[in-house]
């Protein structure tokens, strides 16, 4: 049995069914997809938050293939990000055809938001970062910002360069992020294969990319999905109490947030000492703006050499971090729908929608010249208070492995010790690991 229908639970269920292990997946909500879901707002289909992936996210792309949904995403031919800055020409980060790790060097050399001296210091810091071993436990106790500052990266460089990658990847400000995970992200995405950082985006709402295909695929393979089913307890038998009824299982994968796993699992299954509460949670806020015309496209960038149609752009020197064109995905027929994605959003999470509107509409006008004369049809806000665990120094030591102390009970979720940040890729990898351990457990039971 798999408890939890997010990407971790879906991955575990599909992998087990493919290997001939019958699965019942139990989810308390009326949909699959977990933190990646959509809802209707008038004529729009709105995702709860903007989700992207990189070409190096191989497990996630493997799940899409298993769900027969790989055609519902688009991956850049080449890493290419317009970088907006108020009052100046946009910058651009675009990889070259050089081999790794030189493929991003020309873009960094021309990166206008940084002074020339800071660009040179950034190259030296990148070389030092590339030499770090992300698996070194000592790195978990160090903040990325502290380490970067010690390599000549001033506050502006940490925000305008390193923050573009690390804040969105770790849902943490650079100065607060764990160095080990930061090194892992940079080594995988920036210093690995030249195409590793190419960005992929959904072409459809998230419920059509994950939840719907997962329901169909699990059913096709003979599995069972129970939605709106509340799990009340788990025993070491193992049994899962669902809506008051105990259900026996040969093995159980708990693919739920760490708070729920700590509450539902029997005490004898939990590690000692239990440190999951140290993972805490970090929020993400999205500010959605519907304009009466296009404001994020080639001419909006002041003639800078950027893609004629940019589905997204980063921003520096502004509270805006990333802005995404959601027009086609949402079903909007005229105008343009933008979503401003704000990671590490502690300062924004409790701010009323009216105040967020008053703050971010002027910021978009500062960043996008075409927005200054555009009419605003609608502004609304979505909030994920517990979007990820807080990926700060010390968090790696609090992440548990997939096995518990009780035979037949396993953990999955991006918060477990996957070696990856709390991302869609991490969630999928955790589900695959749990499925592998379940198969090994069942083989051991049969051999007794």
TrEMBL record:
One Pfam family, short name please? Amino_oxidase
User: Which positions fall inside the Amine oxidase domain?
Assistant: 7-438
* An example molecular function term from Gene Ontology annotations: oxidoreductase activity
Q: Which NCBIfam families match?
A: HpnE (TIGR03467)
InterPro entries attached to this UniProt entry: Amino_oxidase, FAD/NAD-bd_sf, SQase_HpnE, Zeta_carotene_desat/Oxidored
Q: What is this protein called?
A: FAD-dependent oxidoreductase
Q: What is the lineage of its organism?
A: Bacteria, Bacillati, Actinomycetota, Actinomycetes, Streptosporangiales
Q: Which Gene3D superfamilies match?
A: FAD/NAD(P)-binding domain (3.50.50.60)
Which PANTHER family does the entry link to?
A: BLR3003 PROTEIN, PROTOPORPHYRINOGEN OXIDASE
Report the domain of life of the source organism. Answer: Bacteria
């Amino acid at each position: 049995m798999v408890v939890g229908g997010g990407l971790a639970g879906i991955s575990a269920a599909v992998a087990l069914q493919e290997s001939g292990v019958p699965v019942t997946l139990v989810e308390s909500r009326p949909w699959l997809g977990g933190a990646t879901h959509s809802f209707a707002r008038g004529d729009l289909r709105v995702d709860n938050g903007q989700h992207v992936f990189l070409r190096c996210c191989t497990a996630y792309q493997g799940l899409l293939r298993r769900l027969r949904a790989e055609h519902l995403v688009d991956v850049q031919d080449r890493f290419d990000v317009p970088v907006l800055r108020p009052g100046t020409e946009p910058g651009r980060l675009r990889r070259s055809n050089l081999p790794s790790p030189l493929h991003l060097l020309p873009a960094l050399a021309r990166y206008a938001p940084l002074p020339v001296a800071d660009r040179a210091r950034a190259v030296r810091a990148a070389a030092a970062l590339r030499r770090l071993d992300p698996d070194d436990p000592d790195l978990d106790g160090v903040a990325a910002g502290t380490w970067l500052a010690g390599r000549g990266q001033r506050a502006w460089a940490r925000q305008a360069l390193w923050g573009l990658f690390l804040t969105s990847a770790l849902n943490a400000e650079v100065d607060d992020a764990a160095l080990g995970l930061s090194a892992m992200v940079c080594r995988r995405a920036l210093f690995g294969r030249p195409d590793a950082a190419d960005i992929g985006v959904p072409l459809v709402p998230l419920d059509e990319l994950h939840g719907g295909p997962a329901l169909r695929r699990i059913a096709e393979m003979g599995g069972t999905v129970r939605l709106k089913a509340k799990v009340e307890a788990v025993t070491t038998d193992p049994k899962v109490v669902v809506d008051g009824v105990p259900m026996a299982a040969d093995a159980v994968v708990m693919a739920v947030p760490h708070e729920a796993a700590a509450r539902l699992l029997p005490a004898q299954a939990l590690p000692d000492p239990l440190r999951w509460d140290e993972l805490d949670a970090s929020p993400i806020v999205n500010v959605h703006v519907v304009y009466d015309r296009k404001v994020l496209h080639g001419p909006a960038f002041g003639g800078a050499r950027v893609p004629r149609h940019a589905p997204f752009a980063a921003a520096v020197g502004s509270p805006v971090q990333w802005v995404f064109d959601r027009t086609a995905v949402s079903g909007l027929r005229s105008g343009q729908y933008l979503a401003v994605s704000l990671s590490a959003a502690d300062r924004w999470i409790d701010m009323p929608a009216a105040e967020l509107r008053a703050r971010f509409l002027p910021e978009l006008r500062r960043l996008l010249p075409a927005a200054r004369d555009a009419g605003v049809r609608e502004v609304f806000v979505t909030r994920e208070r517990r979007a990820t665990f807080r990926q700060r120094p010390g968090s790696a030591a609090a992440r548990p492995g997939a096995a518990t102390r009780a035979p037949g009970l396993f953990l999955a979720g991006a918060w477990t010790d996957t070696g990856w940040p709390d991302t869609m890729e991490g969630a999928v990898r955790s589900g695959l690991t749990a499925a592998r351990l379940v198969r090994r457990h069942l083989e051991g039971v049969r051999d007794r």
